[in-house]
Automatic annotation (TrEMBL):
Signal peptide bounds: none
Any Pfam family: Y1_Tnp
One Gene Ontology term from the biological process aspect of the record: DNA transposition
GO MF, one annotated term: transposase activity
Residue intervals of the Transposase IS200-like domain: 1-111
Database matches in PANTHER family: TRANSPOSASE FOR INSERTION SEQUENCE ELEMENT IS200
Protein name as catalogued: Putative transposase
InterPro entries recorded: Transposase_17, Transposase_17_sf
Organism: Planomonospora venezuelensis
Length: 115
């Protein structure tokens, strides 16, 4: 979720963010299976081994994406000027080891993308 829940992302931002998130996941030897987002948050389906700490992965995803997005899209600055952060400190992570990947993929694909 973005800081102060500002609706900051457009389709162009989300396309670039997906690539940044894929790069971060690859550096952790994990796989970003699905990505989707809205103007104020993103959804990720990540396949990762038990040796990867969820908190470390999330912190890296948020940190790297924040730095790269702010560098590549300076217009985002107007949304984070008070805190100098793109993301809020919170996140949700859930384990879905028993759910079929097709059901999870369908859920993420159905999330609304901004126009």
């Amino acid at each position: 979720m973005t800081k102060f829940r500002h609706p900051v992302f457009t389709g162009v931002h989300l396309e670039r963010m997906e690539q940044v998130m894929r790069d971060v996941c690859a550096s952790f030897e994990t796989e970003l299976r699905e990505f989707n987002g809205e103007a104020d948050h993103v959804h990720l389906l990540v396949n990762f081994p038990p040796k990867v700490a969820v908190s470390r992965l999330v912190n890296s995803l948020k940190g790297v994406s924040s730095r790269r997005m702010r560098r590549e899209f300076p217009e985002l600055a107007r949304h984070y000027y008070r805190a100098n952060k793109l993301w809020s400190g919170s996140y949700f992570a859930g384990s879905v080891g028993g759910a079929p990947i097709s059901v999870l993929r369908q859920y993420i694909e159905q999330q609304k993308r901004p126009v």
